[in-house]
UniProtKB/TrEMBL annotation:
GO terms for molecular function: heme binding; iron ion binding; monooxygenase activity; oxidoreductase activity, acting on paired donors, with incorporation or reduction of molecular oxygen. This is Cytochrome P450 Cyp6-like protein. Belongs to the cytochrome P450 family. One of its GO terms (cellular component) is endoplasmic reticulum membrane. It is found in: Endoplasmic reticulum membrane; Microsome membrane. It is a peripheral membrane protein. PANTHER family: CYP9F3-RELATED (PTHR24292:SF54), CYTOCHROME P450 (PTHR24292). The chain crosses the membrane at residues 30-49. InterPro entries: Cyt_P450, Cyt_P450_sf, Insect_CytP450_Detox. Keywords: Endoplasmic reticulum, Heme, Iron, Membrane, Metal-binding, Microsome, Monooxygenase, Oxidoreductase, Transmembrane, Transmembrane helix. The keyword Membrane applies. Its cofactor is heme. The lineage of its organism: Eukaryota, Metazoa, Ecdysozoa, Arthropoda, Hexapoda.
Length: 196
């Protein structure tokens, strides 16, 4: 995951923890759906049902991921332009804040950062998968555009040596295809528009 500072290699087909967690998160069975429904109906069910046990593996995974990532970066003075770095900077700013300002804030510790990382991960799964699916549908319907997209991908992989962040960033046509898919098939359930 680029945003969480972890090298997954999911594309290469390894045994990736992020892939396994996403499969586990969206694995549906009756008991899971019943618990989730009851918790959605009324928050009191969170205390009555063993909700933490449902996500025990995911909780441990994200706590370990965040702790390991933050400790490694602090120990080795590593900075990256990602979600974890933003949270680390906010935590540092929070530490430097005066005690008067601290009355109504939440401490940004590793547990809180892990919770934010989990929410970031979950929020991105469905919307990204749907957007990719719609973009692929558009490409399947337009063969000329599909050929141009394949040519652009091959050219950028040749230019950069492999499929890297820079190679993807240089794919202007692919970016336009994704933006058009987002315009036509918004991942947001209700989109309110105002005339200009």
């Amino acid at each position: 995951s680029v945003a969480l500072g972890s090298d997954c290699n999911t594309v290469k087909g390894g045994n990736d923890d992020f892939l396994n967690m996403s499969r586990e998160l969206f694995r549906r069975n009756f008991i899971f759906l019943l618990r989730f429904f009851l918790i959605s109906v009324h928050p009191v069910f969170v205390k009555l049902l063993p909700f933490k046990r449902i996500f025990k593996d995911m909780t441990e995974f994200f706590l370990k991921l965040m702790s390991d990532t933050v400790n490694y970066r602090e120990k080795n003075k590593v900075e990256r332009n990602d979600f974890v770095q933003i949270m680390m900077q906010l935590r540092e700013e929070d530490r430097n804040r005066s005690t008067l300002d601290r009355a109504s804030h939440v401490e940004l510790n590793n547990d809180t950062m892990a919770a934010q990382a989990f929410l970031f991960f979950v929020a991105g799964l469905d919307s990204v998968a749907n957007t990719i699916g719609f973009a692929l549908h558009e490409l399947a319907m337009n063969h000329a555009l599909q050929r141009r997209a394949v040519a652009e991908i091959q050219e950028n992989i040749r230019k950069h040596g492999s499929l890297t962040y820079d190679a993807v960033r240089d794919m202007e046509l692919i970016g336009r295809i994704v933006r058009e898919s987002l315009r036509k098939y918004s991942p947001v359930g209700i989109l309110t528009r105002q005339p200009s």
